[in-house]
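> call design_seq(struct)
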Protein backbone atom coordinates (compact mmCIF):
# COMPACT_ATOMS: atom_id res chain seq x y z
CA UNK A 1 0.00 0.00 0.00
CA UNK A 2 1.37 3.38 -0.90
CA UNK A 3 1.53 6.30 1.49
CA UNK A 4 0.76 9.15 -0.92
CA UNK A 5 -2.48 11.08 -0.95
CA UNK A 6 -3.80 9.35 -4.07
CA UNK A 7 -3.82 5.53 -4.29
CA UNK A 8 -1.34 4.09 -6.76
CA UNK A 9 -2.99 2.37 -9.72
CA UNK A 10 -1.35 0.14 -12.32
CA UNK A 11 -3.26 0.30 -15.61
CA UNK A 12 -2.36 -2.39 -18.16
CA UNK A 13 -3.98 -1.42 -21.47
CA UNK A 14 -2.44 -1.77 -24.94
CA UNK A 15 -4.81 0.51 -26.86
CA UNK A 16 -2.77 3.67 -27.59
CA UNK A 17 -5.88 5.84 -27.49
CA UNK A 18 -7.93 4.18 -24.74
CA UNK A 19 -5.02 3.68 -22.31
CA UNK A 20 -4.11 7.38 -21.92
CA UNK A 21 -7.82 8.28 -21.89
CA UNK A 22 -8.53 5.90 -18.99
CA UNK A 23 -5.48 7.23 -17.15
CA UNK A 24 -6.74 10.79 -17.57
CA UNK A 25 -10.22 9.84 -16.36
CA UNK A 26 -8.84 8.19 -13.21
CA UNK A 27 -6.17 10.71 -12.28
CA UNK A 28 -8.48 12.82 -10.07
CA UNK A 29 -8.70 9.78 -7.75
CA UNK A 30 -5.51 7.78 -8.44
CA UNK A 31 -1.85 8.14 -9.35
CA UNK A 32 -1.82 6.09 -12.56
CA UNK A 33 1.07 4.21 -14.19
CA UNK A 34 0.27 2.89 -17.67
CA UNK A 35 1.77 -0.35 -19.01
CA UNK A 36 1.27 -1.21 -22.68
CA UNK A 37 1.46 -5.03 -22.56
CA UNK A 38 1.17 -7.97 -20.20
CA UNK A 39 4.89 -8.52 -19.80
CA UNK A 40 5.48 -4.92 -18.70
CA UNK A 41 2.42 -5.20 -16.44
CA UNK A 42 3.81 -8.33 -14.80
CA UNK A 43 7.19 -6.67 -14.17
CA UNK A 44 5.61 -3.59 -12.62
CA UNK A 45 3.09 -5.67 -10.67
CA UNK A 46 5.85 -7.75 -9.08
CA UNK A 47 8.42 -5.04 -8.45
CA UNK A 48 6.33 -2.12 -7.19
CA UNK A 49 3.54 -1.62 -4.67
CA UNK A 50 0.04 -0.80 -5.94
CA UNK A 51 -3.29 -0.07 -4.31
CA UNK A 52 -5.23 -1.42 -7.29
CA UNK A 53 -4.75 -2.68 -10.84
CA UNK A 54 -6.86 -2.39 -13.98
CA UNK A 55 -5.96 -5.08 -16.51
CA UNK A 56 -7.32 -5.41 -20.02
CA UNK A 57 -8.39 -8.93 -21.03
CA UNK A 58 -6.96 -8.83 -24.55
CA UNK A 59 -3.31 -7.84 -24.07
CA UNK A 60 -0.36 -8.59 -26.37
CA UNK A 61 2.62 -10.68 -25.21
CA UNK A 62 0.67 -12.01 -22.20
CA UNK A 63 -3.12 -11.81 -22.08
CA UNK A 64 -5.00 -10.43 -19.10
CA UNK A 65 -6.06 -13.80 -17.68
CA UNK A 66 -2.47 -15.10 -17.82
CA UNK A 67 -1.19 -11.90 -16.21
CA UNK A 68 -3.65 -12.10 -13.32
CA UNK A 69 -2.90 -15.79 -12.82
CA UNK A 70 0.85 -15.06 -12.72
CA UNK A 71 0.42 -12.22 -10.22
CA UNK A 72 -1.73 -14.31 -7.89
CA UNK A 73 0.70 -17.24 -8.16
CA UNK A 74 3.42 -14.92 -6.85
CA UNK A 75 1.28 -13.96 -3.85
CA UNK A 76 0.25 -10.51 -5.11
CA UNK A 77 -3.06 -9.74 -3.37
CA UNK A 78 -3.66 -6.28 -4.84
CA UNK A 79 -7.30 -5.71 -5.87
CA UNK A 80 -7.66 -6.21 -9.63
CA UNK A 81 -10.42 -5.07 -11.98
CA UNK A 82 -10.37 -6.72 -15.39
CA UNK A 83 -11.64 -4.93 -18.50
CA UNK A 84 -13.14 -7.19 -21.13
CA UNK A 85 -14.85 -6.78 -24.47
CA UNK A 86 -16.30 -10.26 -23.93
CA UNK A 87 -19.45 -9.76 -21.90
CA UNK A 88 -20.71 -13.33 -21.58
CA UNK A 89 -21.01 -14.81 -18.11
CA UNK A 90 -18.50 -17.61 -18.76
CA UNK A 91 -15.81 -15.07 -19.64
CA UNK A 92 -16.52 -13.04 -16.50
CA UNK A 93 -16.30 -16.17 -14.38
CA UNK A 94 -12.94 -16.99 -16.01
CA UNK A 95 -11.62 -13.60 -14.93
CA UNK A 96 -12.90 -13.97 -11.38
CA UNK A 97 -11.57 -17.52 -11.09
CA UNK A 98 -8.16 -16.31 -12.27
CA UNK A 99 -8.08 -13.94 -9.31
CA UNK A 100 -9.75 -10.72 -10.44
CA UNK A 101 -11.88 -8.97 -7.83
CA UNK A 102 -14.20 -7.22 -10.27
CA UNK A 103 -14.83 -6.82 -13.99
CA UNK A 104 -16.19 -4.19 -16.33
CA UNK A 105 -17.34 -4.78 -19.89
CA UNK A 106 -16.30 -2.46 -22.71
CA UNK A 107 -17.60 0.05 -23.59
CA UNK A 108 -17.93 1.42 -20.08
CA UNK A 109 -18.64 4.68 -18.30
CA UNK A 110 -15.56 6.34 -16.80
CA UNK A 111 -17.47 7.33 -13.68
CA UNK A 112 -18.50 3.72 -13.05
CA UNK A 113 -14.90 2.53 -13.46
CA UNK A 114 -13.69 5.10 -10.94
CA UNK A 115 -16.46 4.17 -8.50
CA UNK A 116 -15.67 0.47 -8.73
CA UNK A 117 -11.99 1.16 -8.10
CA UNK A 118 -12.79 3.36 -5.11
CA UNK A 119 -14.86 0.47 -3.74
CA UNK A 120 -12.03 -2.01 -4.33
CA UNK A 121 -9.49 0.17 -2.52
CA UNK A 122 -11.79 1.00 0.37
CA UNK A 123 -10.92 -0.68 3.66
CA UNK A 124 -13.66 -3.26 4.13
CA UNK A 125 -14.84 -4.19 7.55
CA UNK A 126 -18.07 -5.15 9.29
CA UNK A 127 -20.24 -2.43 10.74
CA UNK A 128 -19.61 -1.53 14.36
CA UNK A 129 -21.71 -3.57 16.76
CA UNK A 130 -21.91 -6.74 14.66
CA UNK A 131 -19.36 -8.69 16.68
CA UNK A 132 -16.31 -8.51 14.41
CA UNK A 133 -14.86 -5.14 15.40
CA UNK A 134 -12.66 -6.73 18.04
CA UNK A 135 -10.44 -8.04 15.27
CA UNK A 136 -11.31 -11.68 14.69
CA UNK A 137 -14.06 -14.25 14.68
CA UNK A 138 -13.95 -18.01 15.00
CA UNK A 139 -15.44 -20.11 12.21
CA UNK A 140 -15.16 -23.73 13.25
CA UNK A 141 -11.45 -24.42 13.70
CA UNK A 142 -10.50 -21.29 11.73
CA UNK A 143 -9.88 -17.74 12.97
CA UNK A 144 -10.89 -15.00 10.57
CA UNK A 145 -9.33 -11.52 10.78
CA UNK A 146 -11.52 -9.26 8.59
CA UNK A 147 -9.19 -6.25 8.69
CA UNK A 148 -6.20 -8.18 7.33
CA UNK A 149 -8.38 -10.56 5.25
CA UNK A 150 -6.45 -13.50 6.74
CA UNK A 151 -7.99 -16.84 7.77
CA UNK A 152 -5.91 -19.19 9.93
CA UNK A 153 -6.61 -22.74 11.06
CA UNK A 154 -5.62 -24.34 14.34
CA UNK A 155 -3.27 -26.52 12.32
CA UNK A 156 -1.22 -23.64 10.96
CA UNK A 157 -2.83 -23.19 7.55
CA UNK A 158 -3.08 -19.54 6.46
CA UNK A 159 -5.25 -18.18 3.66
CA UNK A 160 -5.34 -14.58 2.44
CA UNK A 161 -8.66 -13.56 0.91
CA UNK A 162 -9.37 -10.90 -1.67
CA UNK A 163 -11.20 -7.80 -0.43
CA UNK A 164 -14.54 -8.96 -1.83
CA UNK A 165 -14.15 -12.52 -0.52
CA UNK A 166 -13.40 -11.12 2.95
CA UNK A 167 -16.39 -8.81 2.73
CA UNK A 168 -18.77 -11.65 1.90
CA UNK A 169 -17.34 -13.91 4.62
CA UNK A 170 -17.49 -11.09 7.18
CA UNK A 171 -21.14 -10.44 6.37
CA UNK A 172 -22.06 -14.10 6.88
CA UNK A 173 -19.93 -14.47 10.02
CA UNK A 174 -21.39 -11.34 11.61
CA UNK A 175 -24.80 -13.05 11.85
CA UNK A 176 -24.09 -16.79 12.08
CA UNK A 177 -27.69 -17.72 12.80
CA UNK A 178 -29.05 -15.89 9.77
CA UNK A 179 -29.57 -17.33 6.30
CA UNK A 180 -28.79 -14.69 3.67
CA UNK A 181 -30.51 -14.76 0.31
CA UNK A 182 -28.45 -14.12 -2.81
CA UNK A 183 -30.38 -10.91 -3.40
CA UNK A 184 -29.54 -9.64 0.10
CA UNK A 185 -25.82 -10.28 -0.35
CA UNK A 186 -25.90 -8.84 -3.85
CA UNK A 187 -27.62 -5.61 -2.80
CA UNK A 188 -25.33 -5.06 0.18
CA UNK A 189 -21.95 -5.96 -1.27
CA UNK A 190 -21.96 -5.77 -5.08
CA UNK A 191 -22.65 -3.38 -7.90
CA UNK A 192 -26.18 -2.81 -9.20
CA UNK A 193 -25.21 -4.29 -12.57
CA UNK A 194 -24.04 -7.60 -11.07
CA UNK A 195 -26.23 -10.69 -11.25
CA UNK A 196 -27.10 -13.07 -8.36
CA UNK A 197 -24.80 -15.71 -9.88
CA UNK A 198 -21.78 -13.68 -8.76
CA UNK A 199 -22.64 -14.69 -5.17
CA UNK A 200 -22.31 -18.35 -6.12
CA UNK A 201 -18.92 -17.60 -7.67
CA UNK A 202 -17.57 -16.02 -4.49
CA UNK A 203 -18.97 -18.79 -2.32
CA UNK A 204 -17.14 -21.23 -4.60
CA UNK A 205 -13.92 -19.23 -4.16
CA UNK A 206 -14.22 -19.25 -0.36
CA UNK A 207 -14.97 -22.95 -0.18
CA UNK A 208 -12.04 -23.74 -2.44
CA UNK A 209 -9.63 -21.56 -0.43
CA UNK A 210 -10.74 -22.51 3.10
CA UNK A 211 -13.03 -25.52 3.38
CA UNK A 212 -16.11 -26.67 1.51
CA UNK A 213 -18.13 -26.44 4.74
CA UNK A 214 -17.16 -22.84 5.57
CA UNK A 215 -20.45 -21.71 3.98
CA UNK A 216 -23.58 -23.82 4.17
CA UNK A 217 -26.13 -23.84 1.35
CA UNK A 218 -29.71 -23.64 2.60
CA UNK A 219 -31.55 -24.97 -0.42
CA UNK A 220 -34.31 -22.74 -1.68
CA UNK A 221 -33.18 -19.85 0.54
CA UNK A 222 -29.51 -18.92 0.31
CA UNK A 223 -26.30 -19.14 2.33
CA UNK A 224 -25.30 -19.29 5.98
CA UNK A 225 -21.92 -19.43 7.70
CA UNK A 226 -20.84 -23.02 8.21
CA UNK A 227 -18.72 -24.85 10.77
CA UNK A 228 -15.53 -26.14 9.12
CA UNK A 229 -13.67 -28.47 11.46
Amino acid sequence: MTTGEAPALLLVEDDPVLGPLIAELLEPDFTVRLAANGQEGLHLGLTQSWDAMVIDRGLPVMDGISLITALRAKGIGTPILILTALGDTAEKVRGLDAGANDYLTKPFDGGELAARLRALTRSYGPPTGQGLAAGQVSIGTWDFHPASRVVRSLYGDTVTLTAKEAEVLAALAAEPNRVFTRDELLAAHFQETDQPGVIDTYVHHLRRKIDRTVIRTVHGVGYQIGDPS
